[in-house]
Structure formats: structure tokens, C-alpha cells
Amino acid sequence: MQTGYVMFLSIFPIFLEGCCMENHQKKIPAPRQDVTEQRYRVVEGETLRITCPECVNPVTKMVGYRTGEGTEGNKYPYFRCGMNLIAEAKHSGKYIFPTCSNLTFHLQVIQKKSLRHTDAEKSSKYLLVGEGGKIPCPGLSSNDNTNVTWYKGDKLVSQQRRASCEVNGTLNICKVRESDTAEYFCDRQIMEQGVKWIFRRTVNVTVIPFVTPSSSPRIIYPLDNMTEEVVLGQSHTLECKVYFPFEIHFSPEVGWYMDFGGNMQNMSTLQQQEKITLQEFKVTQMATIKEVTQQHLDSTYTCLARNTVGTRTVTVKLKEKNKVKLVSPVEYRIASFLLVAGLGIVLHVKWLELRLIYRSHFQHGKHRGEEEKEFDAFVSYVWSPASAEVGGVLKLSSQSRQTETDEEVCLSCTDPLNSEEDKDNQGSIEVLLPQMLEDHWGYRLCLLERDVLPGGAYADDVVLAIQRSQMLICLLSAEYLTNNNAVFVLESGVQALLQNSISKLLLIWTDGTSASHIKPDPLLSTLVHRALKVLPSLVWTSGQPARATNSFWWSLRKAMPNDRVKLVSLT
Q: How far apart are CA 376 and CA 373, in angstroms?
């Protein structure tokens, strides 16, 4: 049967050649709608679709109301044109178009058994895409000379932009497209007892890519020998996705089978079908295991897909999913408490360092009493033996200069000593620092040995000097950290920084000393120990290269207050 069908399709071009080569397409005008009475005859079980007259409202599409006998209590007092409805005997009757000057519409539904056997068969047609196709009008004999009018839906085929023609009542399509899948209607006129009827028949056309498939189905999921993770005691769904080539009588065969110890069991499945393209269908077959047990882990699962060409299979194994221990609400609370407690302890232990870091590096703006500050910096140091020998002799170069810009000042500090005597004593930072800050950069310094009157209480003098200065500079050396008075100055400066009495505290480590080399000493309190690790600091080493010396002075210049700089001319 299929072989004959293929041979029949293969000779379509022979029949269609004359029509398509001439590109002959008869333009049939639409039936006139100015008649006062229309009569349609349709076959029971076929699609009832009447083209709307021009006078009918295109929105409501109401054809008319039934009149005459048997209208009372009838479930079909009217029907709408342009809509599909399966024709039944109860649709027969006479209808009136109120909006079309009472146009009368007669509808007669005839039974299939009254037709000839060949005429009563279901009207359907398959056309091959890309080939020529013929759509015959059902029940039309070769003796009928009446022209046939073809519709695709509500539109005349002859008025559509298609290479087609009507020959002896048969619609010939030169090249079939996928969009040609539709319901077609053929109208022919018949005369009975001097009354003209339009006999409308329906043809369901389906465009197909080929008559028989040439390949077996292909399984896209799961992959063969795949393993899926499951949880014991819970349900699990096996899913098999298969692509089937098109078949005219499509009945896909897909199933899941469980093999336990050589015993093959058919599993209950749920199937979903979906048309992907003209050439393929997608079938998803699912099998659900309500409760996974150890037996299911020891079994093998097979998905089998079959069509008329061949069979494909894939196998799947199950394994237990690694258990992830869920954290209970109590454990969440305990962990949160421990986290907060740990942060609290860290903040408590490091609170002093955090305050010093904030006030030294991130605090901006005016400080308490800053407008009345008398000195820009209070410099605290202890004379080392080498520095004491030249304390009163060493002076900066007296080369005369004009007023300098900031850039020139920085350049001048690249070589602060010009004389040979100065270069020999370049390592005495206790001497160089006050001279550079006061004589060269114009800062106002407070030095205990010079600016504090003797005879007072040392502690009061130190505290007052710190309060009268914007910042405190401590030159830290081995002698400084073992001197009670010097350590008192450093500790008082830390307290003043915490109390916001000064804006900055700068440490300058000398002679290779640093915070990492400090060992616990009875002279140094815990406050000083912790402050030395976080306060801003610079390192001075005597005899260092010129580039390193320049870098030190540059860093010192940036650390000094900027709003009260007074550059002076050196004479």
C-alpha cells in the first residue's frame, strides 16, 4: 500500500507540469452576495464553515437566526459564520440575516450513509513538502462540468499569491509549502428540481516531509551508562527524551525497564509528546520511583525507543547522593553567639590600637583648642654621646635664598648640608631635625631645654608643652627608651592623642631601632608598648645614601602640619 502511494506521489509533477509551466492560475471572482437567498449543503461530521457575507458585522460574525418550525427550545437558534463547527443534523434549518435586508440562508446537513461509499470516506490528503500536490474535491465525478471554487479557510485560493490552478475540479499546487497544512473547502453548484444549491465539502490537508522514515529514533537524554544521584527514602523521576522522525501514523514506542538480578520489569510511565519541526517529534517518557530503596541502587534502568526503522536503548544506574548535614537552628544560634563574642573580644583587646590608628591616620578637621596652638610641633629627644659633642656647633648652610615654593623647599632638602663639616656630622638627627624644621621650613618648635623655663615641675611642663603644640615628634633611640623623663613625654603624648588634645604623633626611629626590636622593659608601660606598634613612624639611619636621605626628608615634610607652614629666607 505504501509503495503504491509513493509511486502515486512520484507522478504528481507529470499531472501538474502543464498547469505550473504556464503558471496558469484562474482568477475566480468571489461569489456575489447581493442575492436574497442562499442554500448550502454540507456533510454530517465534516467541518461546517460558511464564508461571511459582506453585509455581516465582521466583529460579531453572526449569520442569522433560525426561523420556522422547531425553533422553540432549540439549542442552535443561530450560528456564526467564519467559525469552525462539526456539522450535525440538528444544524439544518432556515436562517435570517437581520443586518442583510433579511437575507435568507438555507442549511442542509446530509447523512454520510446517503452518499456513495467512495464519497463518504473521510476527506484527508497528504502532500510532500517541496513537491507538486493535487487536492481533489470529494464526490466530484468526471461527468460534472460545473466549476469548483476552492477556499483555504475563508479566503479564495485563486486570489492568494500561490502558483496553483484548478483543473476539472482538482486544486493543483505547483510547489507544496509547510504552511499549506490547513482545511480546504471546495464549493460546487448542483441543481435539484430547479433549485440551485452550493455543495460544500471539506478536505484536511497535511504537509509531510516524507512518506516513511529513514532512521531510527535518537535518545538525547540520558546518555548511555549514565549515573544519577538519589536520596534513599525519597522519590526519584527517571526521564528519557527521544527525537522521532516524522511518520504518517505516528505512534511512538518509548518505555522504562528495571533490571534487578536478571529480572526485567516494565515500569509505569507518563508520556509527553511535542512536535519540534516538520520532520521530528519530541517524546519525553518519565518513570517515577515513589521511594528509593537499596534494591533500586542495585538495579539497572533501561530506556527503550522504537519505530518502524529500528530500536535505540540507553542504560542508567542510581547511586546514593552524599549526605549534607544540615545545620540546626540551635547550632546557628550557637555559631552566631560565638562569632559575636569573638568579635567583641577582638574589639576589646584591640580597641586601644584601633583608636590610635583612627586618630593618627583617618581623623580630619580641627581639634580641640587648635586655634590657640602656640607651636607647630613639640620635639622630644635624648642626646646620644655622639650628638652631644656637636650639639652646639652644627649649623645648616647659611647660603642666602629668596622666598621658596613648596617644590623648591623639597628640592632644597635633598642636600640640606653643603659644607664638609656638615656632611661629616650628617648622622646627628637630634641636631639636624630642629634646624631643618625651624630654619629651613619655618615651623615653630617647642624644645624643653630651650622653651620651658627651669625650676618648674617637669610633669606639668611636659603636659603644658604638649597641649600648646599641634603635634608631637619623638626621636626614638636606645637612650630615649631607657630614659624615664623621655618615656614620660611619649606616654603623655599618647594620652593627649587619645584625648584629642593634639592632632598628630610622629615617631622617628634612629640608629636601627624599631618596634620589632623592643623587648619588655619596666620603663615602658602597656600603653606605650601597644602605641609603638601602630603609630605613624619614620626611620633615620646615619650615613645613609643621598637618595634614602631625600626620601626621609620628603616623608617628614608630608607628615608636618600644612596649614601653618611659614617659609623663611635663610641668610
A: 7
Instruction: For residue 347, give the C-alpha cell.
Output: 574589639
Residue 128 Cα to chain centre, angstroms: 43
What is the distance between the alpha carbons of residues 4 and 415, in angstroms, rounded to a whole number?
Answer: 110
What number is the average pLDDT over the span 243-266? 89
- Dist CA 61 CA 64 (whole Å): 9
d(CA 76, CA 99): 19
Closest by CA to 302, choosing from 219, 217, 216, 245, is: 219
Confidence at residue 284, expressed as pLDDT on a 0 to 100 scale: 94
* Residues above pLDDT 70, as percent of the chain: 73
Whole-angstrom Cα Rg for the chain: 53
Q: Are 78 and 66 in contact (CB under 8 A)?
A: yes
Contact (CB, 8 A) for 214 and 251? no
> CA-CA distance, 178 to 278, in Å (whole number)?
8
How many CB atoms are closer than 10 A to CB 155?
12
Helices 526-534 and 484-498, axial angle in degrees (round to 10):
70
Q: Please, are residues 380 and 472 in contact by the beta-carbon 8 Å criterion? A: yes
- DSSP tag of 277: S
Return the C-alpha cell found at 28: 475566480
Report for 202-216, 450-464, 510-524: range of highest mean pLDDT:
202-216
d(CA 428, CA 491): 24
And the C-alpha cell for 222? Answer: 540520558
> What cell was used for 467?
597641649
> 555: which 3 cell numbers?
616623608
Grade residue 417 by pLDDT with cuts at 50, 70 and 90. very low
